Amino acid sequence: MKWSCLHTHTNFCDGKADIETMCETAYAKGFESIGFSSHAPILKKTGIRTKSSIKEKRLDEYIDRVLKARKYWNGKLSVYLGLEVDYVHGLCGPADADIQALPLDYIIGAVHFCSLPKKNEFFSVDESPENFRLGLEQFDNDGYAFCEAYYNIYNNMINAGAYDILAHLDLIKKNNDLFRFFTPGDSRYTGLLKKTVNLIAAARTDAEKNGVSVPVVEVNTGGMNRGYSSEPYPSRDTLKLLAEQNVPLVLSADAHTPDQLGKNYEAAMKEMKEAGYTGMAFFAGRREGKAVWQEEALAI
């Protein structure tokens, strides 16, 4: 099986190692490829201050460093240039002209921020437990209302298009093991998931008809790697819904440190297999403006 990680962060954003160290580690682990996906700048567009996003003034440097790494590792390790682009409704997203103008191999579409119903500001669902509690209180501790707000934004991103990979689909569950603000099997929650998965399937069909890049869904072990979750994003139940719609999956570690590259891949593949998958998507570069995906059998 070919090993890869397209969701990789470095010290250009909130990662802890440089590009070269991540490449060296991927090569040592026998990876076929690695893709870098710094968080795209959002401050100018949204007013949201975050420590995770790459600074606007360093974006060109980031691109240059990844392209130099590609040249250096040519023939040994395929190195791809990507960005994880936040969708903030009405303010920014993967379809933005400045993002589309960049020489990217792929774009990861992500939702981290929800608008709060009682304040004219945004809140990250990826927060620490202490801060997450404050956001939940803004929804009167109604976890299902919070989930609905999150998935509504995610659905808007799906409909807006212009991404190649959909990131950590059910990131909203990150703090659920601690706060239990929703029950995964509750119809109020599963109904939200079904709607989102149906939209993903429809977006893939539309993309194919329109001759643009057809997106895949990421299976992300980041929550497992950092001790927030006992399962990947998305959960097995969500994976089953995706399998019913024949939506391909790409495996990633959302790696922020070298040791996280490939971490918990076996556990994630087991979840994929239990959901009905026998293979997954492997990125083979970009041709004629579209991401090219090959199918690899699950190594489990």
Q: Brief description of this entry?
A:
The chain is α/β, with parallel strands linked by helices. It contains eleven helices and eleven strands.
How would you describe this protein?
- With 300 residues, the protein is α/β, with parallel strands linked by helices.
- It has a single domain (4-114, 147-297), classed as Alpha-Beta Barrel (TIM Barrel).
- It is 37% helix and 19% strand.
- The chain has helices at residues 19-28, 43-46, 59-72, 97-100, 129-137, 143-160, 176-179, 187-210, 222-225, 236-244, 265-274; strands at 4-5, 33-39, 78-86, 106-110, 113-115, 122-124, 165-166, 216-220, 249-252, 279-287, 290-297.
- It has a seven-stranded parallel beta sheet. A two-stranded antiparallel sheet has the order 5-6. A two-stranded antiparallel sheet has the order 10-11.
- α1 (19-28) links the parallel β1 (4-5) and β2 (33-39).
- α6 packs parallel to α8.
- The N and C termini lie close together (10 Å).
- The mean pLDDT is 96.
> In whole angstroms, how far apart are the ends?
10 Å
- Total domains: 1
pLDDT < 50 runs, ≥5 residues: none
Relative helix content: 25-40%
Cα-based radius of gyration, to the nearest Å: 18 Å
Q: What is the number of strand segments?
A: 11
Counting DSSP H or I runs of 4 or more residues, the number of helices is: 11
Could you describe the largest sheet, including whether it forms a barrel?
7 strands, parallel
Strand content: 15-25%
CATH H-tier superfamily: Metal-dependent hydrolases
